[in-house]
Design brief:
Helix content is about 25%, strand content about 25%. The chain is built from 16 helices and 24 strands. α1 packs across α3 and α2 crosses α3. The longest helix has 24 residues.
Length: about 650
């Protein structure tokens, strides 16, 4: 999402300098890797906590040598990485237990192999300088273990090389210290190096610098006092959503003009230019749609950001695109929102098209609710084209009310307001007698002012998800985003994740004005120093260095499936994961349970497939590590 449309977004320029694809492996020799996998499992045990993916990757790192692969798997840094991943998946307080269990099994298997050799050759040992006598391979007893699998075939091991156990005796398997059994989650700051691996990517994250604080305790106390004594208006982030051509940009552009936030000369210029290209009705939309492509096509592509104030609120306006091709941009905008305005076209046939299977009305409402929006205004637009017909307004309300309740909106938190975005009726003022004869409610701006303030996480550790990276003439290297939690001030030291680099806040701007500090809920621009622009990507997080954000590739998530799915979701389903400002390729590796959408109770465990309109819990594995939090702790990042 681009916050500063007049500034060049340099994301693509640095795309290849951050996560570098390392595809150095040739195509696997199927027989070699299958046999090697079985040899490794003979050493570490069939019930090992290590996954087959871990074993395959270790073999690739060691040129398919089972002995070296086992040694590599139990290196200190790999053990610590596995501990952290185990904690993220299951939340087990004794995260080192599975790894310690594997090491104990390796030792037991080695001892068992030695005892078997003694029984075969009692009292015999090779002469000095003489090679040990070769013994025939003993067939492996069936253990009930699932045959080892690869991407090309599957096989079951039948032999155990006798030389393997002999060679393992020289291995140095390091055992985790007792301190690693602590219930504290292992984070990158506690390890020297953390490696996240998959078949196509090797991504090394260096440790976060230790003993660096965001700011001193006295400075933190001073900032808390300033926030407590702050007497300004409550800030709300408002996203405008709805089906394409419902009139979202026109409505909000006209609202800004009526409130005095658009110069009349600029407005006349837009009217003249839009009329010249045959799009006279788009003039108000141009207040928010500043890209040339958006104006030529007549659709919003990026999320437009503006600010305005009502009697009691400071509003950050996020104008989201309605076209189905730009749903990821809509998600990026809704992820920052506290409240929403859902704009629907009231005209006969147009409303039904937007609400139908191929429209975006349902999807946008469901996405907004899933991303934490709980208060909603439904702006029933273009009512002037229906002659302000109350019956038509009531039809729209009757259709939408049960649907919005079904997706999770409390009916008491949903307000319906009839408007005309093009004429401006009932945006700020209401004049038409055809409307005032039956409608006695709020105008749109008063409805926005009536939104309840949102509870902010001021006391939690600082978190901000980066929505834009740019260079400004006065500020230099800058990032933009919404402060999700905590406090930030000029001079603070922040940790950039997942790359774990420290940077310093040089300047903060809020709504275009320079400020000394910002708090949770504020949309800000921050100028940073002590860091390279090529290291910062949209979707990275800035956090308090003492309390970094957990980084994971595997985690559990609760999801809701939409209607009209082309096919059921099964284990191994490829998806694109959208969370805060990240869009990352991922795989649903496990279907854990189907949930009751109302109570959250488990209805069925380990389903084979997921159909339409289902709430479920799944395990997701991303291609690259991402920053994630528990939803209950930081809902916009979790």
């Amino acid at each position: 999402m681009s916050r500063h449309r007049h500034l060049k977004n340099l994301e693509d320029e640095y795309d290849d300098d951050y996560y570098q694809e390392q595809d150095d492996f040739e195509e696997d020799d199927t027989d070699l890797i299958n046999n090697s996998i079985d040899d490794v499992y003979d050493i570490i045990g069939d019930n090992s906590q290590l996954t087959e993916d871990d074993v395959v990757y270790a073999l690739r790192q060691t040129n398919y040598k089972p002995k070296a692969a086992v040694e590599w798997l139990f290196k200190d840094d790999v053990v610590q990485s596995k501990q952290k991943q185990a904690f993220k998946r299951g939340g087990d307080s004794n995260v080192s237990a599975p790894i310690q269990q594997d090491i104990n099994i390796v030792a037991m298997n080695l001892q068992k192999d030695k005892n078997e050799k003694k029984e075969k050759n009692p009292g015999k040992s090779p002469a000095k300088g003489q090679a040990p006598a070769k013994t025939p391979n003993k067939p492996k007893e069936p253990t009930g273990k699932t045959p080892a699998k690869t991407s090309t075939s599957k096989t079951t091991a039948t032999t155990t090389p006798s030389k393997l156990a002999t060679d393992i005796e020289s291995m140095n398997l390091s055992t985790p210290s007792s301190s690693s059994s602590s219930s504290t989650p292992i984070t990158p700051s506690e390890t020297e190096k953390t490696d996240f691996m998959n078949d196509d990517d090797v991504f090394s994250i260096k440790a976060a610098p230790k003993s660096i604080k965001q700011h001193s305790a006295s400075r933190h106390k001073e900032l808390e006092e300033k926030i407590h004594n702050f007497k300004g208006k409550d800030n709300l982030s408002l996203v405008v959503i709805g089906h394409v051509d419902a009139g979202k940009s026109t409505t909000m552009g006209h609202l800004l003009f009526d409130l005095g936030y658009v110069d009349p000369k600029i407005m006349k210029k837009y009217q003249h230019e839009s009329q010249q290209i045959g799009k006279a009705s788009f003039s108000y939309a141009w207040v928010l749609d500043e890209h040339e492509e958006e104006r030529n096509r007549g659709v919003t592509i990026d999320v437009g950001i503006n600010y305005f104030e009502t009697e009691n609120r400071r509003i950050t306006l996020l104008d989201a695109p309605g076209h189905k091709d730009f749903v990821p941009n809509m998600i990026s905008g809704a992820a920052q929102a506290d409240v929403a305005v859902l704009v629907v076209d009231s005209q006969e046939g147009e409303f039904e098209a937007g609400f139908g299977a191929t429209g975006q009305t349902k999807e946008h409402a469901l996405l907004a609710r899933s991303l934490g929006v709980s208060q909603l205004i439904v702006a029933v637009n273009k009512m002037d084209l229906c002659s302000w017909n109350k019956a038509r307004f009531d039809d729209v309300v009757t259709i939408l009310t049960p649907f919005l309740k079904q997706v999770g909106f409390n009916p008491s938190s949903v307000t319906y307001i009839p408007i005309s975005g093009l004429s401006g009726e009932n945006l700020v003022n209401v004049k038409d007698p055809n409307l005032t004869s039956w409608y006695k409610g709020n105008t749109l701006v008063k409805g926005i002012d009536a939104f309840a303030p949102t509870e902010r996480a001021f006391s939690k550790s600082f978190r901000i998800s980066i929505s834009d990276v740019f260079k400004a003439q006065m500020m230099g290297l800058s990032v933009a985003g919404k402060v999700e939690a905590g406090i930030v001030a000029v001079g603070d030291k922040l940790l950039l994740e997942p790359v774990n680099e420290i940077c310093t806040v040089k300047q903060i701007r809020r709504e275009g004005e320079s400020v000394e500090w910002a708090k949770a809920g504020d949309n800000i621009d921050m100028s940073l120093v002590d860091i390279e622009m090529s290291h910062i990507k949209i979707g990275n997080l800035l956090a308090d260095p003492e309390y970094p954000v957990p980084i994971a590739k595997s985690f559990r998530a609760q999801i809701i499936t939409f209607n009209n799915m082309p096919f059921p979701i099964t284990s191994g389903h490829q998806v694109v994961l959208h969370t805060h400002h990240i869009a990352e390729a991922a795989t649903i590796t496990q279907l854990i349970s189907i949930l009751d959408r109302t109570t959250g109770e488990i209805k069925k465990k380990k389903p084979r497939a997921l159909g339409e309109n289902i709430a479920c819990q799944v395990e997701i594995v991303t291609n690259r590590p991402i920053c994630v939090e528990l939803y209950n702790d930081y809902k916009q990042i979790g």
